[in-house]
Design brief:
This is Terminase. InterPro entries: Terminase_largesu-like (IPR005021). By secondary structure, the protein is an alpha/beta fold. The protein has three domains: about 250 residues, P-loop containing nucleotide triphosphate hydrolases (Rossmann fold, 3-Layer(aba) Sandwich), CATH 3.40.50; about 50 residues, no CATH class; about 210 residues, 2-Layer Sandwich (Nucleotidyltransferase, domain 5). It is about 35% helix and about 15% strand. It contains 18 helices and 18 strands. It has an eight-stranded mixed β-sheet, with helices on both faces. Strands 15-14-11-12-13-16 form a six-stranded mixed β-sheet. α1 packs across α2 and α3 crosses α4. The longest helix has 17 residues. The protein is elongated, with a radius of gyration of 28 Å.
Length: about 550
Amino acid sequence: MPWRGPRYDGEFPSLGHQLVEHVEQYLCHGPGDVVGEPIDLDDEFYAFIVKAYRLDPETGRRVYRRAFLSRAKGRAKSEIAGMLVCAEALFPVRFDGWDADGEPVGRPVKSPFIRCLATEEGQSGNTYDNVSTMLEYLVEHHGDEFPGIDIGKSAQSSSRIILHHQRGEITPSTASSAAKDGGKETFAVFDETHLYVLPELRRMHGTVRRNLRKRKEAEPWCLETSTMYEPGQDSVAEATHTYYKAIREGRIRDADAAGLLFDHRQAKDGTDLADRDALLVGLKEAYGPAASWMDLDGIIAEIWDPQSAPSDSRRYWLNQPVAAEDALLDPGKWARCASELRLQDGDEIALGFDGGKTDDATALIAMRIADRLVQPLGIWERPEGPLGKGWEVDRKQVSDLVAHAFGLYQVRAFFADVKLWESYIDEWGETYRDELVAKASPKSVIGYDMRGHQQELTKATEALVQAIEDVKILHTDHKVLNRHVGNARRRPNRWGVSFGKESRESPKKVDGFAAMQLADMARRALLASPDWAKRQKKRRRTGRVHGFA
């Protein structure tokens, strides 16, 4: 018979209820103050497990192929991950039919192959430590029910747990080992993915996720656990959150097939770190049921410690995504400027260009004169990995795109940083000078030396930041530009606050921001131009009125 149907609004079939019973019966708490004690899951984590094991009521197959659990520091995320690793290895976690009452019945995974991913060589990871403790307890107290579990007590299993009876294994992995294996994982845990910021860690995440598609009958899936990330670091956690937002906003072709469970809890935005009462409320919001046993007074003392950065305190203890202390822009304020509007053929625009050659990115950004809509026309970055070796930006492709922009839109001003591209900029100036109303500098209609105009650049940076904070800029929510904006750092000088990279050799590019700023400077120069004022006066006489922000 099929599933019995919902008994209340929102009910769905799940193997999670049975799984919780097994976890509480057979496993213990992992390393910590209550190590070895029986598990009694709180309602919040119980609900997460039920959601994670949701089934399609028609087919009985898993609904989610990925789950993301985001909680504040110390909320036992690695412990619940360890419970699920043990469950995926031993307990009935896959659909095996409906019973006489229409309830789902589970079965264990055949030949389970489970990875606990770590960030560094030689690090077993918090999840794997929990798994080892829990299985040692299970073998000691319930070994007759679960025979053949070898927890690192032989040469064969010194770096993994062998499940002889189930013909499976649980193994800790790093980026290098995961890349070497053509694994056929049935379950994988990525712990603390806000730390997965290096290219090799992002590749590891992608490799293992692809491996999870190799065994259809096993219905593989993965779990990510994390505290909130630092926006702009391009971590795996940030990418997963971006994917979730795209699903929620209907930007994924088949949202139902996306299969992502995103479970996040945080304190209310704007929680005052200096107000003890407000901070207590925020911590209770962030920790939920765990607030009753967390040392909230100790956490407040840590937050108030002069050596604790407020941004770190918000990420770790309130689980809020907050930019670095020296970030030029609050990512939330930039996100508020996102728009569904797009440039239209014939629009009057200003262009900004910041060019690189090999390591730096190259960006061509348009800004519509009428409403300051920012739309990247092209951003070129060196590919990661072997493809990046010997890479140079295709200058002809860039120049062709400039020509395309002049053909498609009415370009009225164009500021381009002269570094590395002076000959091309001179050529563009000669080609397009008659179409441009405002000049970039006394010597060039397009060329602008960013290094030689620090005072002007600083004032322009401050004006652009203020416009973004006041939502007087619009943008098309371009992924790469968003990242470049998030990477921009405050650089105080004697004239105010300009922008720069995190460090001189940082791989986190800001060239998209630089090009956007040049486009905004070009637009400002245009609006201040007497020739432009004459054009607007003439338009008003003919009845054509344009408003400018």
